Write a sequence for this structure.
């Protein structure tokens, strides 16, 4: 039964980072288990989508040209602004809280960051945010249940 709990936190973290700590706490996992499974889930997405990123880039480019869609919309401009100002470290820092692990990795890959840099920056970011968010959920999670 523990395997199901671990898999739940791991799989949720692959898709939505904040879901990992919330799921871990709700399933009664320890702080360390929740934190490590959240990092593992995000880094699995990073590994998969950093490889897939280039192929998706080509596909999106062909699709955009075929539909004659503009390259830059408001959302894309914001992402490029973050990229130009902070680079891969800025995208990695914001990935767990603003983007999903999938989207943040795709952005870094599409904008030309080397895979090694993507892995390194996403790893420190996932540890930092996993530590922070898991702590917040463990310490203040019961407070939220009083209001909701």
């Amino acid at each position: 039964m523990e395997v199901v709990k671990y898999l739940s936190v791991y799989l949720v973290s692959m898709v939505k980072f904040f879901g990992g700590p919330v799921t871990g706490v709700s399933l009664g996992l320890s702080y360390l288990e929740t934190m490590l499974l959240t990092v593992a889930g995000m880094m699995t997405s990073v590994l998969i989508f950093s490889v897939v990123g280039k192929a998706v880039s080509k596909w999106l480019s062909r699709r955009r040209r075929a539909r004659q869609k503009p390259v830059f919309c408001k959302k894309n401009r914001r992402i490029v602004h973050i990229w130009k100002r902070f680079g891969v470290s800025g995208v990695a820092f914001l990935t767990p809280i603003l983007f999903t692990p999938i989207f943040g990795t795709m952005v870094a890959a599409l904008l030309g960051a080397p895979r090694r840099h993507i892995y390194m920056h996403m790893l420190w970011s996932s540890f930092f945010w996993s530590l922070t968010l898991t702590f917040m959920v463990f310490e203040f999670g019961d407070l939220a249940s009083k209001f909701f």
In short: The CA atoms of residues 5 and 27 lie 7 Å apart. Helices lie at 2-15, 19-26, 31-67, 74-94, 101-110, 115-147. The chain has a mean pLDDT of 87. The two ends are 29 Å apart (CA to CA).
